[in-house]
Amino acid sequence: MKRLGPFDSQDFVMPNDSSVVFLDGLGQLPENQPYYSEYFFIAICTEGKAQVVYDGRTMVIHKDEVFIAVPGSVLSDYLLSPSFDCKVLIINSTEVITSQELHSQFLKSSLSIKKNPIAKMTETDKEMLFNYYNLIIQRKQKPGQPFYRSIIHYLVSAFLMETAALLIHAEAEEPVYSVHGEQIVERFVQLVNENKGRVRRVENYADQLNISSKYLSTLVRNVLHRKPTDIIRLVTIKEMERLLHYSDKSIKQIANMMEFPNTSFFGKYFKSHTGMTPASYRKKHHH
């Protein structure tokens, strides 16, 4: 398998007048680095296979499978087989999901999809998704037609719901949590990604959410089956690695940017979670 990097930054910027971006294959992507997803990222594998680390878990996507990364996720360490090919949609959910009912549905499904982001497609599933895919592309090519924006929104919303339905697995043995609790967890993940490791205390997030840190920990464990500190640490380390790898700032400057009290504490934190000092990591990866 060959190593794959993230999209060019221009591909990841959603134009203000756009709700969806299409990419035909991923062969043009440059060197690898973590990507903090702010959008729904949907990849339909048509040939070969791909591997990606998704929120700390290694995922392998095979031919005739669909993969969704929901907003507030971290993608890194991409690898592709030589024959890999796919269709990709990057969807701005705030532009597409305009009704409160749809927003509530996707909030609930996003947490389920986060646990099970890959689904096998039947021939019927593939035909249905590609019908939507091609229809959206056709409509995108006619921006002057009446009701253009509404048509795009409804088509993309339908595509999202159809795709999400393939990935949601009913787990009767798991308790059902309130929408309010799920909203708190979703907001927590969003805040962690927005802070990019600069805020590392669970108590700080609990204060922002107007709940106790114990209650936040309980919600995150119940909904995501992980501790809040696991999510904070993942985002913190990925941001540290990104800055050490791709920025020319000194280690002291990066420590200050990440709001560590000093360079020594920064180095100990990084080494305890990666097994390498910041200087060793930079020497190995920095170009």
CATH secondary-structure class of the largest domain: Mainly Beta
CATH architecture assignment name of the largest domain: Sandwich
CATH topology description of the largest domain: Jelly Rolls
Largest sheet: 5 strands, antiparallel
Query: Could you state the CATH homologous superfamily of the largest domain?
Result: Regulatory protein AraC
Overall number of domains:
2
Average pLDDT over all residues = 79
Using the CA coordinates, give the radius of gyration: 20 Å
Helix content: 40-55%
Query: Helical element count?
Result: 12
State the distance separating the first and last CA atoms. Answer: 22 Å
Report the portion of residues in β strands: 15-25%
Instruction: Label the overall shape.
Output: globular
Specify the structural class.
alpha+beta
Query: Runs with pLDDT <50, length 5+?
Result: 1-17, 170-176
User: How many strand segments?
Assistant: 10
**Order of helix and strand elements from N to C terminus:** EHEEEEEEEEHHEHHHHHHHHH
Oligomer: single chain
